[in-house]
Specification:
By secondary structure, the protein is of the alpha/beta class. The protein has 9 helices and 15 strands. Strand 1 and strand 2 form a beta hairpin.
Length: 393
């Protein structure tokens, strides 16, 4: 087995996150991939656990044989992918062409999963004398509501006996995402919620007899656009840029011949290091109350933004960068505007950073792919970093 062959196998096992849609079919959810991972770890002969997060969706955790007195590194990679509608390459074939592997998840993030699995396998078989204790977590539901990583962090924050592997915080979280072999040491988080306006329904032939909730929402959106412009003018984080706000979904009304008595929008508020994911909602609410002459409803968030700060990962990222430089000089520490599991691990008291093959520009695309050479280099980085992490400790 090598990383290329393994990646093709992983792509061929659909694990599509339905993203809240009422869809059915065997391509959805992580169950088949979860079983593959359990079989993989069982055949490797390591201790592993499959822990249910919500019905039918599990995190899988495995570890190398524990050694006293050395650091513990949590390597985390998510099992799910985004949907496949509109793809122009076969989503589940793992097609190899011109030095690339194509398919859903090739870049985000089954390429990293293949690299981590191969590095983990080598660590188990080689048992390097200076290796860290390595825990590999394969988490569910990253692409939608991050239930998997939240559940994982709770294993050490509030031990309940669900796990015998992850009962205390690791020393480092190394999260897999496509970073082009750079190291993400800081990133934004996202708070997402709905705002609702209400009106009075009536026949559309006499609209003045009702109150149009969509017209009211238009005023909300206009005010939010002004607020978003003000956010963009604020002081930016040196690595992540300024905070942002975007309205991404609008729904309302029942029929074109009825004046709508309800309307909702979905808001994405990107949170930079130093901001609180709930407080930013309060700021929006206060701004709208001061701006609008009517009432509206702020619905509870389904994701609360947690950002990743670079305040406590400097030593670890320096060590990782030195490993990368030995294989391919010229890489750097960066900040990015999107969010990852690293923020949740860091919130759990564990210094964290993000590293993996591929570019975010290929993630979620209609022809998603990953470069094979980069895939193999990332495997070597994961291995060398973990194999030498106890040196000098």
């Amino acid at each position: 087995m090598d990383a290329v062959r393994l990646l093709k196998q992983l792509i061929a096992i659909p694990s599509v996150n339905p993203m809240g849609r009422a869809v059915t079919g065997d391509i959805y959810f992580e169950g088949r991939l979860t079983q593959f991972l359990c079989n993989y770890f069982a055949e490797l002969g390591v201790e592993y656990e499959s822990i249910e997060v919500v019905p039918g969706r599990n995190n899988v955790i495995a570890r190398t044989a524990p050694k006293p007195g050395v650091p513990t590194i949590l390597m985390d990679v998510h099992q799910d992918t985004v949907p496949v509608e509109g793809m122009i390459v076969p989503p589940f074939e793992g097609t190899e062409k011109d030095g690339k592997i194509y398919g859903r998840g090739a870049c985000d993030v089954k390429g990293s999963m293949a690299a981590m699995l191969m590095a983990f396998t080598r660590l188990v078989k080689d048992n390097p004398p200076d290796a860290a204790n390595v825990i590999l977590s394969c988490t569910c539901d990253e692409e939608a509501t991050v239930k998997g990583i939240n559940h994982l962090v709770q294993l050490w924050e509030n031990p309940s006996g669900l796990s015998q592997i992850l009962t205390e915080p690791p020393d480092l979280g190394l999260v897999a995402e496509p970073t082009m072999l750079d190291i993400v040491v800081a990133h934004r988080g996202a708070t997402r919620w709905k705002i609702k306006t209400t009106g009075k329904a009536c026949h559309s032939s006499q609209p003045n007899d009702g109150v149009n909730a969509i017209y009211k929402m238009a005023d909300v959106i206009k005010a939010l656009q002004t607020h978003a412009d003000e956010l963009a003018a604020r002081d930016a984080h040196p690595l992540c840029g300024p905070p942002t706000l975007s309205v991404g979904v609008i729904e309302g009304g029942e029929s074109v011949n009825i004046v709508p008595d309800w309307c909702t929008i979905e808001i994405d508020r990107r949170v930079i290091p130093g901001e609180d994911g709930i407080e930013v909602m309060n700021q929006v609410e206060e701004y709208l109350k001061q701006t609008l002459p009517f009432e509206f409803e702020m619905l509870p968030p389904w994701i609360t933004g947690v950002s990743l700060s670079d305040h406590n990962n400097g030593e670890w990222s320096d060590r990782l960068l030195s490993v990368i430089d030995q294989l391919e000089p010229g890489h750097k520490k960066v900040g990015v505007p999107y969010g990852t599991h690293a923020a949740r691990v860091n919130q759990g008291g564990v210094p964290s950073m993000v590293f993996g093959p591929g570019s975010i520009a290929q993630a979620h695309t209609v022809d998603e792919w990953i470069d094979i050479e980069e895939l193999l280099k990332s495997e070597e980085v994961y291995y060398q970093f973990c194999a030498n992490a106890a040196r000098g400790v």
